Automatic annotation (TrEMBL):
<protein>
    <submittedName>
        <fullName>Putative side tail fiber protein homolog from lambdoid prophage</fullName>
    </submittedName>
</protein>
<dbReference type="GO" id="GO:0046718">
    <property type="term" value="P:symbiont entry into host cell"/>
</dbReference>
<dbReference type="InterPro" id="IPR005068">
    <property type="entry name" value="Phage_lambda_Stf-r2"/>
</dbReference>
<dbReference type="InterPro" id="IPR011083">
    <property type="entry name" value="Phage_tail_collar_dom"/>
</dbReference>
<dbReference type="Pfam" id="PF03406">
    <property type="entry name" value="Phage_fiber_2"/>
</dbReference>
<dbReference type="Pfam" id="PF07484">
    <property type="entry name" value="Collar"/>
</dbReference>
<dbReference type="InterPro" id="IPR051934">
    <property type="entry name" value="Phage_Tail_Fiber_Structural"/>
</dbReference>
<dbReference type="InterPro" id="IPR037053">
    <property type="entry name" value="Phage_tail_collar_dom_sf"/>
</dbReference>
<feature type="domain" description="Phage tail collar">
    <location>
        <begin position="539"/>
        <end position="586"/>
    </location>
</feature>
<dbReference type="GO" id="GO:0019062">
    <property type="term" value="P:virion attachment to host cell"/>
</dbReference>
<feature type="region of interest" description="Disordered">
    <location>
        <begin position="49"/>
        <end position="68"/>
    </location>
</feature>
<keyword id="KW-0945">Host-virus interaction</keyword>
Length: 686
């Protein structure tokens, strides 16, 4: 590759390389012809532009009344602004006074602050250092307080001799894993508050003599340690070895609760449920950690905000396009104006030509004018350049005079001794820093002791871990748990005690598993057939005092039923019909005793009849009969035609006799009955 030789000339037409042109390199080659013509034009334009600029500059200087600069006298424009960086304007006494007055009320560069003037002091959190309030509570959920060694000692002492703690649920205390997610519905994780808000923004303007500081301007703040007080970062971890962080009451509570009888769970894997540690990392390939909703959200949000791999942009979507300036290339807007002061626009050839033509008819570059020939010299003001009278005053309100370097130096020297708007303080200059206590926030000294009762020190995660580790995995202190811990458990094995503090394992049968799975004692009794009324086998008639049987029972009224409805009842009554016990007495089955021979179970038997024949064929009523013992006699009237026998037997003195049913036309005998109470016979429906 080589450089093309450029010529300062204007090419009327730009050569276009045709497909039929052979590729030919070199200075005069066809392939370089078009670039060379463009280069020639560029060099020509550059020369003409520089000539026009030089002519214009010489014309401006030819007035012989130059502007004032830092090294030469001249015309200048006044300004009362106090935030201008211009070196071509003159500050008025008013501007100098404003700067002087502002500096006079500021604090010296070297000064101190009592603690009451320190604002925006950050509170310690799980992610940032800051001041913290102490707490000796062992059941607090706070993550913004620091546990005292006393709280750690309570948890540590409680852990000695305890069994492993159980996992926490919504109905039971226990150890728990933290989560900072905000869109998680888990009921097995414990939510933490978000990080404490950052310190307030620095106040605008100069720092007044009486001012406050955001925490970000406090430098050299000591960190709390085992030997010195200072700010500390909180931690709810229970397995940290850190001695530079402060354990939260929540961490203490976790260690404390761990001592209260937990079981040891197995670790979760990709094929087995168990306990798991969370991770918010988005570049981790572990299969033994669980991603938090925060990690998932970070990956999702990152992907959601990305553009497709292949995409384009219209110009309207191109941001940060640089504008051309005196020191950098960029896009530029053209202007044909000849009186513009802009340094961000580009002059067109038309503007250059107008300036060039104007300069051609003006006075020579080198000529002078006596002051007497300079007419209409303007006076300098806040809006226009002109001549001005100087002033060294530092308390003047004038806006028509120009401050001398002496006045500016006086104001500058006064301000130089003041503290800048943005300044910091070493910790040694911060006075009145409060110490943390159980009722107030402040700096605190750390302690890794596990037997301290102090309430003004902050326990480190190392102390919490010591208490936690002591509780985690400890063998029980009592013989009963020791006996259980020595068993080699397996599936379908149930521990039981063979003696005092002696345990063994029994095989758990299907019936045993079914009983354990029942939700209540009632369900277990029903499963075993020992529910309400279960003391009697299904099918036994039971006297019931009301007309309506209880739930699960049927009246003995002769009704039919199906085996599908009541399979157990069907075994007691194979005919699938209940006995009709309404108005009947139950008699014991003879079963070979020969007192009531020939009877079958559930067979009906007529009543025993006593009395005499009514020759008048009228219903016999002997209810009026009585004896000296006031025993009532009576019975149900029985008509011979309805009786289930061909002969009716009746008693006579010295024996019995009988009559044919055909000979009896009217009411005959009465059925005798013992004294009784009417009950409703019922059976269980099962």
């Amino acid at each position: 590759m080589g450089n093309l030789n450029e010529t300062e000339k204007w090419e009327e037409n730009i050569y276009q390389l045709e497909t039929s042109d052979p590729v030919l390199g070199g200075a005069d080659g066809i392939s370089n012809r078009a670039p060379r013509q463009l280069a020639n034009r560029t060099k020509w334009l550059k020369k003409k532009t520089e000539e026009a600029a030089q002519s214009l500059a010489e014309h401006v200087r030819s007035r012989n009344h130059p502007d004032a600069t830092l090294t030469a006298k001249g015309f200048t424009q006044l300004s009362s602004a106090t935030n201008s960086t211009s070196e071509t304007l003159a500050a008025t006494p008013k501007a100098v006074k404003a700067a002087y007055d502002l500096a006079a009320g500021k604090a010296p560069a070297s000064h101190t602050h009592p603690w009451s003037q320190i604002t925006g002091v950050p509170a310690a959190s799980l992610t940032a250092k800051g001041t913290v309030q102490l707490s000796s509570a062992t059941d607090s959920q706070s993550e913004t307080e620091a546990a005292t060694p006393k709280a750690v000692k309570i948890a540590y002492d409680l852990a000695r001799g305890k069994y492993t703690a159980q996992d926490a649920t919504t109905t039971r205390k226990g150890i728990v894993q933290l989560s900072s997610a905000i869109n998680n519905t888990s009921e097995t994780l414990a939510a933490t508050p978000k990080a404490v808000k950052a310190a307030y923004d620095l106040a605008a303007g100069k720092a007044p003599a009486s001012h406050t500081h955001p925490w970000s301007q406090i430098t050299g703040v000591p960190a709390a340690s085992l030997t010195a007080k200072g700010t500390v970062q909180l931690s709810s971890a229970t397995d940290s070895q850190s001695e530079t962080e402060a354990a939260t009451p929540k961490a203490v509570k976790i260690a404390y609760d761990l001592a209260r009888g937990k079981y040891t769970a197995q670790d979760a894997t990709t094929t087995r449920k168990g306990i798991v540690q969370l991770s918010s990392a988005i570049n981790n390939t572990s299969e033994t950690l669980a991603a938090t909703p925060k990690a998932v959200k970070a990956a999702y949000d990152l992907a959601a905000g990305k553009a497709p791999a292949s995409h384009t942009h219209p110009w309207s979507q191109i941001t940060g396009v640089p504008a051309a300036s005196l020191t950098a290339k960029g896009t530029v807007q053209l202007s044909s104006a000849t009186d513009s002061q802009s340094e961000t626009e580009a002059a067109t050839p038309k503007a250059v030509k107008a300036a060039y033509d104007l300069a051609a008819g003006k006075a020579p570059v080198s000529h002078t004018h006596p002051w007497s020939q300079i007419t209409g010299v303007p006076a300098a003001s806040l809006t226009a350049k002109g001549t001005v009278q100087l002033s060294s005053a530092t308390d003047s309100q004038s806006e028509t005079e120009a401050a001398t370097p002496k006045a500016v130096k006086a104001a500058y020297d006064l301000a130089a001794g003041k503290a800048p708007v943005s300044h910091t303080h070493p910790w040694s200059q911060i006075t009145g820093v409060p110490a943390a206590s159980l009722t107030a926030k402040g700096t605190v000294q750390l302690s890794s002791a596990i037997n301290s009762t102090s309430e003004i020190l902050a326990a480190t995660p190392k102390a919490v871990k010591a208490a936690y580790d002591l509780a985690n995995g400890k063998q029980p202190a009592d013989a009963t748990l020791t006996a259980l811990a020595g068993l080699a458990t397996a599936a379908d094995r149930l521990p039981y005690f063979t003696g005092a503090d002696r345990a063994a394992l029994a095989t758990l049968t299907a019936i045993g598993r079914a009983i354990i799975a029942k939700g209540s004692i009632k369900d277990v009794l029903n499963y075993l057939g020992l529910g309400e009324g279960s003391a009697l086998p299904v099918g036994v008639p039971v006297p019931w005092p009301t007309a309506t049987p209880p739930e699960g029972w049927l009246k003995c009224d002769g009704r039919a039923f199906t085996k599908e409805q009541y399979p157990v009842l069907a075994r007691a009554y194979p005919t699938l019909r209940l006995p009709d016990l309404r108005g009947e007495f139950i008699r014991g089955w003879d079963d070979g005793r020969k007192i009531d021979e020939g009877r079958k179970l559930l067979s009906w038997q007529k009543g025993t009849l006593v009395g005499g024949h009514d020759d008048n064929d009228s219903a016999l009523d002997i209810s009026y009969m009585s004896n000296g013992n006031n025993i009532d006699y009576g019975g149900d009237k029985v008509f011979a035609g309805n009786y289930r026998s061909d002969y009716l037997w009746y008693a006579v003195l010295g024996g019995t006799n009988s009559r044919a049913k055909a000979e009896l036309n009217g009411a005959f005998f009465n059925i005798t009955r013992p004294r009784n109470i009417a009950f409703n016979y019922i059976v269980r429906a099962a």
